[in-house]
Every structure is written in structure tokens, then in C-alpha cells.
């Protein structure tokens, strides 16, 4: 099916050096760093944000806020009219991690722009309104969306769901899975040429990128003490699937589509954090969310049957969303889905090995992560082998 062409996005809004801003600022600064940030906010307000309804006469406060994620500092700017009435709020995200460069910040801003426009026609789904970015300072300025991460919304009732969970709470968990699946299907309908590299990306190049990612993650798992035989089996299984199947459709890939990047607001479900926004294969993001739920099987107090049901509902909602839109005509319902599950679990494994062990990861009501992951890989690889043997037997008969 041919995709509908739509207009390309507006260019990224960049900022220039900052002037003296003291007469417009409310309150006191907390050191030179916060003062510099306040100056940048003022400059953006005066030169860039008029198109979004910001008055150059508004004053503002700026304060750090607590938010998930360790790679960036987050701040909230609150703007006030001359009569001291609150007007607008802006979310600031400044990266400090040395491995996150200005190109990655620019890519994230591009992803927010594209997704914000694409989701606007929907009733429920949104991405924050992007305002501008400072690549030299690795800062993003965007709409502040009061919300809580879907990770928290899911984990609170799931944590002890084997012991106690009301029927209405179970229904709501399944409703969130439907929304997550449909949100992903909407996101993947965005024309590929909206990404700067979209039309230049090839399926062979995408496969090579996936293989490099897997090898990098397996290298960390090896240093973390994963059995060498298991590492070889994982690599062989993923490479075989990536290289032996026909290539599925290329779509826009979020790369971190998971409960911690979906934010639940009063009216909308927001998709955030587009740092690794790129072209990719359709089932990559779905498998990532699915594996994020897989990690919850580690908790002995989680109702495994309910969790399995949530995963099934997620997949069905995703496929139904594409089917209703007449998008992605797939020869297989989820090509490469199982390969991506293996690949994503190596990502989670290497991420966990990079974090010092603590009480959170050695909880009494949860299986130790290392044991859980090794058992998960063994079981999944055995299931893969059994399925392959079954296919061969059917062909021979």
C-alpha cells in the first residue's frame, strides 16, 4: 500500500548567544549553572517562542525537578504575566553524559517535532510540543506535560497482583496495554521520509546496525560473567534470523519504546525521549516493550497469568491498529519479533551489569537478576530450537 505523502517538518529552531536578563527574572539563582540556564530561557522566550504564544513581557522562575533518567538534568520554567498570574510551563532537558553529543540531541528534537505533529489529530495520543534546542549546550526546550510514567502506573498494582488485585485494576492494566499498542501503530504510520536519513537507509544497513548492537551488548554480558556457551547460542540465533528471512517493511523506530517513556496524563498518553529515533524494522519497538514486561516475571509476587495476558493484549492492539489503517501488509504477523526479544534481553542484561548491585536488585520477593536472565535465555533458546525442529519435521513429512 502506498503511503500518503505529507509535508516535511519545519526546520529545527536554534538559539543564539544570550543577553542580560536580570530585569525579567523572578527569584534568586542557585549558582552560575542555574543563572546561565535562566539566561538561555530568557533568550529563547524573547527570540523564538513568540510563535508558540509566549509574551516577551512575561517573567519566569526556573527550578530543577526530579525525574527518571540519569543522563540528563531536568528543569521547569514557569512563566507569569505582569499581574503575576501563571501562564505557561516549559520543560528543560540538559544532557551531561559525554557519550551524548549534539548530533544525538538534534536527532531527539527532530523526533519530537515529527511525532508531535503526527499524533496531533488523535484524541488520546501526544508527544510534547517542542519549542527549541541549544545544540551547543545539549539542551531541549519543550512543553511541560503533567503526567506520571506508565512504568509507575503499571508496577504499583502489578507488584503484588498475585496476592491482591481488584477486578477494575486488572481491566485498567489491560486498557493501558491496548493504548500502548495503538500508540505504537500510530507512530509507525508516520512517513519514513520525515526522518532526515529515512530515504537513504537500507534494510542491509539496518541489519548491520542491529548486529553491531548485539555484539556490543554480548561483550558486556561476557565481562559480567554470562556463560560463554550461552553467549554464542544467543549470537547464532539472532544472526540466523536476521540474515535468513526476507526483510520486513522499514518504519520509523523509537528505539526505547517502553513503559518508562510513555507518560500518563489526565487526558493524553504521551510518547517521550526520542534520543535514538531512527529508521528500523516494525517489530523492533513492539518487542522492546514486550521484553520490558518480561522483566516483571522476575517478581514472585506478580501474577504471571495476568502479565502474559497483558503482553497478548499489547500485541493484538498493535496488529489491529495497523490492520484498521491498512498499513504494513506483512507476510508474517511479526517478522523478526523473536530475534528482537533475544536482542533486547541482552540490552537489559548489559544495562543491569553496569549498575552496582543493591537492595533493589536483590529483593527478597524477586529472583536475582543474573539467575532470572540466564534462565530466561535458556528457556527461550530451547523454545526456539523446538519450534525449528517442528518446522523441519513438518517439511520432511
TrEMBL record:
The protein's name in its UniProt record: Phosphotransferase
Domain of life: Bacteria
Record flagged with keyword Transferase: yes
A molecular-function term among this protein's GO annotations: transferase activity
Native source organism of the sequence: Candidatus Manganitrophus noduliformans
Keyword Transferase appears in the UniProt entry: yes
Keywords: Transferase
Pfam families: APH
Domain spans labelled Aminoglycoside phosphotransferase: 78-294
Amino acid at each position: 500500500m502506498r503511503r500518503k505523502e505529507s509535508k516535511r517538518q519545519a526546520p529545527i529552531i536554534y538559539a543564539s548567544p544570550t543577553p542580560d536578563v536580570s530585569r525579567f527574572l523572578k527569584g534568586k539563582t542557585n549558582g552560575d549553572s542555574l543563572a546561565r540556564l535562566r539566561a538561555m530561557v530568557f533568550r529563547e522566550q524573547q527570540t523564538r517562542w513568540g510563535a508558540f504564544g509566549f509574551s516577551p513581557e512575561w517573567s519566569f522562575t526556573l527550578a530543577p525537578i526530579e525525574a527518571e533518567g540519569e543522563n540528563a538534568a531536568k528543569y521547569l520554567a514557569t512563566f507569569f504575566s505582569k499581574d503575576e498570574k501563571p501562564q505557561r510551563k516549559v520543560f528543560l532537558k540538559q544532557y551531561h553524559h559525554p557519550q551524548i553529543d549534539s548530533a544525538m540531541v538534534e536527532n531527539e528534537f527532530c523526533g519530537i517535532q515529527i511525532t508531535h505533529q503526527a499524533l496531533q489529530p488523535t484524541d488520546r495520543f501526544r508527544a510534547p510540543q517542542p519549542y527549541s534546542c541549544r545544540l551547543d549546550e545539549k539542551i531541549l526546550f519543550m512543553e511541560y506535560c503533567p503526567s506520571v510514567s506508565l512504568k509507575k502506573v503499571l508496577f504499583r498494582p502489578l507488584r503484588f497482583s498475585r496476592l491482591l488485585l481488584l477486578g477494575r485494576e486488572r481491566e485498567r492494566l489491560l486498557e493501558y496495554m491496548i493504548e500502548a499498542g495503538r500508540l505504537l501503530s500510530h507512530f509507525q504510520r508516520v512517513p519514513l521520509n520525515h526522518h532526515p536519513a529515512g530515504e537513504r537507509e537500507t534494510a542491509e544497513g539496518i541489519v548491520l546496525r542491529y548486529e553491531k548492537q548485539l555484539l556490543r551488548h554480548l561483550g558486556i554480558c561476557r565481562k559480567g560473567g554470562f556463560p560463554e556457551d550461552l553467549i554464542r547460542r544467543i549470537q547464532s540465533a539472532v544472526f540466523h534470523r536476521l540474515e535468513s528471512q526476507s526483510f520486513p517493511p522499514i518504519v520509523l523506530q523509537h528505539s526505547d519504546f517502553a513503559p518508562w517513556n510513555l507518560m500518563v496524563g489526565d487526558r493524553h498518553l504521551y510518547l517521550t525521549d526520542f534520543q535514538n529515533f531512527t529508521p528500523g524494522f516494525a517489530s523492533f519497538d513492539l518487542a522492546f516493550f514486550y521484553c520490558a514486561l518480561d522483566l516483571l516475571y522476575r517478581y514472585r509476587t506478580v501474577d504471571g497469568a495476568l502479565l502474559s495476558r497483558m503482553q497478548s493484549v499489547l500485541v493484538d492492539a498493535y496488529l489491529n491498529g495497523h490492520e484498521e489503517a491498512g498499513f504494513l501488509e506483512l507476510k508474517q504477523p511479526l517478522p523478526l519479533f523473536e530475534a528482537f526479544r533475544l536482542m533486547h534481553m541482552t540490552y537489559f542484561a548489559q544495562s543491569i551489569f553496569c549498575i552496582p548491585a543493591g537492595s533493589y536488585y536483590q529483593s527478597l520477593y524477586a529472583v536475582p537478576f543474573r539467575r532470572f536472565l540466564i534462565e530466561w535465555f535458556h528457556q527461550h533458546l530451547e523454545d526456539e530450537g523446538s519450534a525449528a525442529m517442528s518446522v523441519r519435521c513438518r517439511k520432511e513429512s
